[in-house]
Amino acid sequence: MKIWAPLLILASQISAEENSSQENVDDSFKGMKEYFIGYGVKRKEHRQAVEVWARSKESSRLVELAFNSITSKISGSKEILEKSNLSEFTAKDFDTSKLGDERNSMSSIFENIALLGDLARRVPKQIDALWEGFEDKDLILWATEKTKESSLYRFDSEMVENALRNETSSMVAFPVYVLSQELELFGPREDGYINLYRAIRDLPENETQAEFSERHAEMRRDKKLDEIQRRKDKRKKNGLKPPVVQRKTEL
């Protein structure tokens, strides 16, 4: 497999040619519907590419190339925006901008930050080493903040159930959350945050696979209980009563 082949995905443009099954998109997002669809297609391609890079015999080289490409693209996008006085662009700037260099640059930032989040999750040790030697950390912090302010992030947060931790359906909130935790962009990692790809690498020498599995199964159970309680609290805050659960008792 050629090293550069997987990286071609980074240069491709967002495709909005897929038909949508999301007919009930909130009215405030309808103007961006095609973009959201295309971005979702792109995210699926990214996740598949990251898995290929992680499993490759040339993984270290591929991840380094990807990291350098991602940071270079974000830097280039910022330069284009600065020339148009849009380095502090808002969600409104993106939503109302015409299809051109500025909007493409904003979109590139959203794409590449999410892709970096995928890498930070899947190959955390390699990203740790690359991040330690990366000098322009403020660039990634800026790009992450801009992504969190975007209408794309708001769409994800409002339309996807538990988007911050929904690995399957989240387009941008999940990878941004992981990136923030892994690189500690906004402070120390949250208590209870788990990246199993990192945990497996950090497996204590004296811990058996069974012990590891049980320890992390317990962590997942605790996280699930916390999430159930969070939903209950949210329903209570909104004045909603929890659904009645009827249990059948067999004699």
From TrEMBL:
PANTHER family: COILED-COIL DOMAIN-CONTAINING PROTEIN 134. Residues 212-230 have a biased composition (Basic and acidic residues). Keywords: Signal. InterPro entries: CC134. It comes from Oikopleura dioica. Residues 1-16 form the signal peptide. Residues 208-251 are annotated as: Disordered. This is Oidioi.mRNA.OKI2018_I69.chr1.g2701.t1.cds.
